[in-house]
């Protein structure tokens, strides 16, 4: 089955990705916005829609954010009495008829649950490496194409 969506436990990924938003608290809006910015670049490269789930219904945990949710890059917060894990499990179950989902979390029980439903799961560290590699490859391709265009332009002069 094709991979139809990537579900990410946002705070789990933020806690592992220390290089992201250095000096900012892991639960801050600035750290979340930087995570979403990087994930949007990855989504543009990979082409697979992403949903990021964050624990926290309180405005303090949510904080003011400059990032808006879109269908391709969805950002969801759990409500009171609900966790991001609950939301991920329910979403993974609902997506079963449409194809596989990939869940990114360091919660082993969560990964086991998703795999048991027929989805795929990976650790945050593995996903970080995937994102970093994909973005580096994308930057290399952009530099190559820019150089080629510049050389073609210079030949015309």
Walk me through what this model shows.
α3 (59-62) links the parallel β2 and β3. The protein has 157 residues and is α/β, with parallel strands linked by helices. The protein contains six helices and five strands. It has a single domain (3-156), classed as 3-Layer(aba) Sandwich (Rossmann fold). It has a five-stranded parallel β-sheet, with helices on both faces. The relative contact order is 0.17. The model has no long low-confidence stretch (mean pLDDT 88). α2 packs across α6.
Taken from the alpha-carbon principal axes, the silhouette is globular
Structural class: alpha/beta
Q: Give the DSSP E fraction (strand runs of 2 or more residues).
A: 15-25%
The CATH architecture classification is 3-Layer(aba) Sandwich
Low-confidence parts lasting 5 or more residues at pLDDT below 50? Answer: none
Determine the number of helices (DSSP H or I, runs of at least 4 residues). 6
**CATH class wording:** Alpha Beta
Number of E-type strands = 5
């Amino acid at each position: 089955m094709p991979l139809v969506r990537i579900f990410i436990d946002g705070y789990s990924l933020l806690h592992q990705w220390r290089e992201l938003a250095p000096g900012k608290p892991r639960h801050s809006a600035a750290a979340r916005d930087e995570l979403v910015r990087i994930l949007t670049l990855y989504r543009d490269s990979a082409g697979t829609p992403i949903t990021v789930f964050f624990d926290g219904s309180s405005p303090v945990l949510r904080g003011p954010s400059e990032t808006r949710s879109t269908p391709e890059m969805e950002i969801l917060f759990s409500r009171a009495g609900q966790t991001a894990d609950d939301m991920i499990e329910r979403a993974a179950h609902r997506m079963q008829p449409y194809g596989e989902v990939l869940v990114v979390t360091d919660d082993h029980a969560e990964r086991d649950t998703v795999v048991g439903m027929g989805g795929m799961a990976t650790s945050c560290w593995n996903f970080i490496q995937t994102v970093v590699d994909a973005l580096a490859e994308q930057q290399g391709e952009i530099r190559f194409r820019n150089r080629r265009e510049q050389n073609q332009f210079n030949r015309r002069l």
